[in-house]
Amino acid sequence: MDLDAVTKQSALHAKPDGLTLQYGTAGFRTKAEHLDHVMFRMGLLAVLRSKQTKSTIGVMVTASHNPEEDNGVKLVDPLGEMLAPSWEEHATCLANAEEQDLPRVLVDIGEKAAVNLHQDAFVVIGRDTRPSSEKLSQSVIDGVTVLGGQFHDYGLLTTPQLHYMVYCRNTSGQYGKATIEGYYQKLSAAFVELTKQASCSGDGQRTLKVDCANGIGALKLREMKHYFSQGLSVQLFNDGTKGKLNHLCGADFVKSHQKPPQGIEMKSNERCCSFDGDADRIIYYYHDADGQFHLVDGDKIAALISSFLKEPLLEIGDSLSLGVVQTAYANGSSTRYLEEVMKVPVYCTKTGVKHLHHKAQEFDIGVYFEANGHGTVLFSKAAEMKIKQLAKELEEDKKRKAAKMLENVIDLFNQATGDAISDMLVIEAILALKGLTVQQWDALYTDLPNRQLKVKVADRQVISTTDAERQAVKPPGLQEAINELVKKYRLSRAFVRPSGTEDIVRVYAEADSQENADSLAYEVSLAVFQLAGGIGERPQPGF
Ligand code: 16G
Ligand code: MG
Asked: Is 16 a domain residue?
């Protein structure tokens, strides 16, 4: 390592004195103006990680659903997964080192992680459409080059597309071609194949309205839609030509406000969906004939997909294990439906894709979705090989068709991470194959009314949780207070957890009616405020 060169270059990306940040659930995220040094240093870190793993590493510049003024960065590990936890710690140390300590910290990481410095390094970079992203990704490149790393800058990409590129490159193209056309072709071909079998179920051309959150999803979907135009026509809204990124639109807005985004025309019973700012989440919704808004969230996507998969799996007669992974935010009705009606095992992990992804890898077929619309389906290598073999070998027509269908499903899901575009195509294919309307899909089960609130506290780390965040172990008395409050309502449940992305505590409550869910959420917020060091205004009832 040429540490003198690092010191010199770093001075051009100097860290503001006293600023400390943490590599959280979704990497580093804060106001864009505070991130230049972090980007440079993540370029350095990506080189070390690449040398250590002897693989291509990804760096994505995005702040997803956060406001346009924010930005962020995360590293993508060799198989398209989130960065390994020990490296999250290295990332935090490196980002927070004062200028003069930077060379020492860098050498330290190299030693701790046993990095062979003579190894070559290759880093791929992608960014979203934020005004700050281009300059920040240049700072990443500066970091990569000063340590002698090679790089390829993909420019504008959705986050899942960058994960895909990393995965392709580290499997020598076996997963797909590491180009944007490669991505479009792979997914569209699988979609077209899959929907071919839906020929009889048709209202002909199917149409879907997509709210792109004024983000990167609009650019990429516009490029891609020609590839699958025969099976599906998508109409783009909030495509970034007028509105501001994530402002009153996008999947996070729709899910948390439980209302439609601005800038989309919804007629009754029309199928609509929203992406988030970097297109790794998707949420569906519609207005019924009475003008009432219905949200079809990540839980219902998981329910649709798992019930769809069960049939061909049964047909091919091979006992591949299927499991669904959720978080504490999953609606109680969805868990009940999956376990009691669908008879599939359901597991709960902590919030954050890496936890769900990890758990889903334990099954032959692991369906994971967060209620907020982030998820995918993972097929183990063994399951994939088995299915591909059956698709070739099975004699009986019906069975071979089922295996072929599963083969297309494997190709259509982004196996590297949750992907709004890929999920959208899977969902549209399933609806077409099953001849389902969005209302019929929604009717799989009825969501329990729920409410999410935020509480400001002096230090959110005074709350610690267990049991996949469903129980608070600290501060003392809080869980007991929640238990007492929950007892007051029917079909009720509530939990609290410190946010991993904002300086607040999140409160979730569900109950038999909206009024009761609202009251419970308010009462739990008050308990948090009183027992966990609330600051500012006390929580107020009413929404
Ligand atoms: C991040 C996570 C998302 C999680 C959310 C929770 C990834 C790629 N994204 O956006 O999965 O739901 O954080 O945020 O892991 P919170 O901790 O503020 O509630
Ligand atoms: Mg996102």
From this structure: yes
- Using the mean position of ligand 1's atoms as its centre, give its distance from the Cα of residue 501 in Å: 7
CB of 352 sitting under 6 A from ligand 1: yes
Give the DSSP per-residue string, 210-229. Answer: EE-TTSHHHHHHHHHGGGGT
Residue 273 is classified by DSSP as E
- 437 lies in a domain? no
Does 188 score more than 70 pLDDT?
Answer: yes
**Sheet with 365-369, edge to edge strand ranges:** 346-349, 322-327, 365-369, 375-379
**Cis ω for the linkage preceding 261 (within 30 of 0):** no
Domain containing 140 — which CATH number? 3.40.120.10
Q: Find the angle CA(96)-CA(469)-CA(345) to the nearest 5 degrees.
A: 125
* Catalytic site residue from 10, 50, 55, 64: 64
Asked if residue 317 has pLDDT above 90, the reply is: no
CATH code (residue 523): 3.30.310.50
Whose CA is closest to atom 12 on ligand 1?
352
Taking a C-beta distance cutoff of 8 angstroms, is the pair 100, 38 a contact? no
- pLDDT tens profile 13-62: 999 988 999 998 889 999 999 999 999 999 999 999 999 999 999 999 99
Domain that holds residue 33: 3-156
Ligand 1 atom nearest to CA at 329: 12
**Predicted local distance difference test score (pLDDT) of residue 204:** 57
Domain limit, last residue, from 156, 173, 188: 156
pLDDT at residue number 495: 98
**Residue at which a domain ends, from 136, 156, 176:** 156
Reported as a single tens digit per residue, the pLDDT across 415-439 is 999 999 999 999 999 999 999 999 9
User: Among the atoms of ligand 1, which is closest to the Cα of residue 353?
Assistant: 15
Do 470 and 328 contact (CB within 8 A), yes or no? yes
pLDDT, averaged across the chain: 95
- Contact between 159 and 64 under an 8 Å Cβ cutoff? The reply is yes
Task: Give the span between the Cα atoms of 369 and 281, in whole angstroms.
Answer: 10
Amino acid at 383: A
In a domain, 152, yes or no: yes
In the predicted model, what is the mean pLDDT of residues 363-380? 97
How many domains is the chain built from? 2
pLDDT computed for residue 137 by the predictor: 98
Note the pLDDT tens digit of each residue in 460-469.
999 999 999 9
Q: Any residues with CB less than 8 A from the CB of 532 and at least 6 apart, and which?
A: 455, 457, 460, 462, 463, 475, 478, 505
Using one digit for the tens of pLDDT, what is the confidence trace for 57-93? 999 999 999 999 999 999 999 999 999 999 999 999 9
With a 6 Å cutoff on the Cβ, whether 501 touches ligand 1 is yes
Distance 500 CA to ligand 1 centre (A): 7
**Identity of residue 123:** V
